[in-house]
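Pasting two entries for a bug report.
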Amino acid sequence: MRYHCHKIAVALALASLCVLPSGAQENKPIGVNLETIPYPFPTVYISLDIQGEALKMAYMDVKPKEPNGKTVLLLHGKNFNGAYWEQTAKDLAQAGFRVVMPDQIGFGKSSKPHRIQYSFQLLAKNTRTLLDSLDIARVHVLGHSMGGMLATRFALMYPDRTETLILENPIGLEDWKTVVPYQTVDDWYKSELEQTYDKIKNYQLTFYYDNQWKPEYERWVHMLAGWTNDIDYPRIAWNSALLYDMIFTQPVVYEFGNVQVPTLLIIGQRDRTALGKANAPKDIQQTLGNYPLLGKKTAQTIPNAQLVEIDDVGHLPHIERYDQFIAPLMKFLAAH
């Protein structure tokens, strides 16, 4: 694999560091599968044999004290994992829902393959296999960011398993490859190898929170930045590069009209996220990631869709403005 060519050099470079990046809070190696990071609920695993590799898919399964017979499947974004659904899962369980939160292969506590061809179809199939193992027939599917692309693909592939579709600031509402120059997997990999705590924090500060930082956001930086100090970071970076290529080359935007289930869009209006935006021509950059416009357009394209717009909120409504996120979600679920 290409990442092996850099592994020794990267390890030596990391070993030479004398101090942590500025502002880092215990930015220490955290384990290739987040072994040192506690999750809010017990972590369970299923085994998957994918393209010749024996892999483990981690998930959390929260069962309510007073079940209402319904299950919500929570799908995380590219720079996150199932742990950031903690408060959402607690409130859904309190309302009677069973809540399943997988870490997709390549993310969080799940395996980081040595060699794999990623696709949203593969991730959707893995997710269905997880649900089958739990004897869960139908789910309300909620996806955030990249998880919104996966949730849409799941609903398209398995409409009989999907009660409703909820998309929280999903990416992929436009086809970036039509206007953004293509980056190879090697290009993405090189960029990932150059990640640092400061770069990761500054990205989140700028694009997620509009420079409105809160101490509770630090944990989501640490779960990414801690990897950069790991001896196996090249493998993590290689998986990340493959996943970026998947996101960039496999849009779902052209298939929104085929969604058959009731859909809720929760869109933070300050969000301007767009993959590869910095590589686009200057005049094009300003048009990308326009979530106020994209949310309206997507709601008009998906049959039986509702749109909830949250003012002055960026890419992470369920982290930045939880009350404004959970209220419309609960209302929608109650109606279905």
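Entry 2 (this is the one that rendered wrong in the viewer):
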Amino acid sequence: MQQQLSEIQNIVEDVLTLAKQKGATQAEASMSKVQGIAVSSRLKEVETVEFTNDGGLGITVYHGKKKGSASTADLSPAALKLTVEKAIEIAKYTSEDDCSGLADKSLMAYDYPDLALYHPIELDTELAIKQVIAAETSALNVDPRISNSDGASYNANIGTKVYGNSHGFNAGYNSSRYSLSCVVIGEQDGDMQRDYAYSVNRNATLLDSPEQIGRDAAQFTLDRLGAQKVKTCKVPVLFHREVASGLFGHFINAISGGSLYRQSSFLLDHLGKQVLPNWFDISERPHILSGLASSPFDHEGVITQDREIVTDGILNQYLLTSYSARKLKMQTTGHAGGIHNWFIKNTGESDQAMLQKLGTGLLVTELMGQGVNIVTGDYSRGAAGFWVENGEIQYPVHEITIAGNLKDMLKNIVAIGAVPETRGSVQTGSVLIESMQVAGD
């Protein structure tokens, strides 16, 4: 793969040189190559086996403040030349934009760390098939009420990513990602429920075993059987850690440059203001070794760095690309392409202690629908989970809606559980919110 990395860097350098020869004042290009395998099964029979060997290059050129972009999956010299010419041609017809252009040269990641993102294995079809069959077998053997399967899936991807621009920056790295999941259906007294379990890691040897994933999927499904509705009420709501990261996804959207310069965020003009409880911290750590959201530089070549996004509940940082930063008359924060490993400070409670703190209310384990307005902060989503009384789970619930306003929800977070969800870009424990409207019967 090191040879492939060098070859891709050479291609990127060639197209940047060609863009300059064609009259571009600035140019940037990114290219990736990915090999992968995806295998799925249903009821212990193989459904699909897919191999991928994809590559593509995208280039953006600037003529002063005019911008043109083009991309190609054909990496032949003739196709690359045509792609550059098309980008140049497009730039001639676009309007000038004073905020367009590369990120500042001084911010480039000319010297960046190896983050151990690459853990290659052989893309073995037989191994993948054994994994999915073992996961389903394990799930279906847990309990007779697990009556059906919606399938198991195994995915493995290894690849190379390179970004270069006319600042003389041309860098890339290899990475890998593996996942295994299982979805099963349970039935009891005419009630059918479905749930799943999954594991994801940069290192295939660190995935949960297929047997464990199958057992977890089955148990999660069994726990949901006999679900009821609840009466409409206003109660404390505990977002299980698996769905709690979604709350911070809305927060990320609200403090991202695109939402801010378009004035379409409920957190407009909140930099330096209290947006969360005074004990609340959010830290970003882009250089965690083998982290799922680790990256030495962003999609514009800007070096990533540790940041304290929120301290004592105060918003320290917007999330900016070079374009949105110029729109807001600020500096890019290295967030072109997204965030890099957020860690949400917890308040130390175990899962059981979080239920005790909830008291009587709703534990949410699944969210449905897209009823979130980032402009106003209004929040309304379908939900399922468990009704809790006196800190003890009583029964599963479904077909309910929870509603509130994100600005109030964030400020009224009571506690963050000590056990974090680690399978994504936001690592957070379960989140307890003081009160929300629950609509049921």
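Dev reply: Rendering is fixed now. As a check, the viewer should reflect this: The chain has nine helices and 17 strands.
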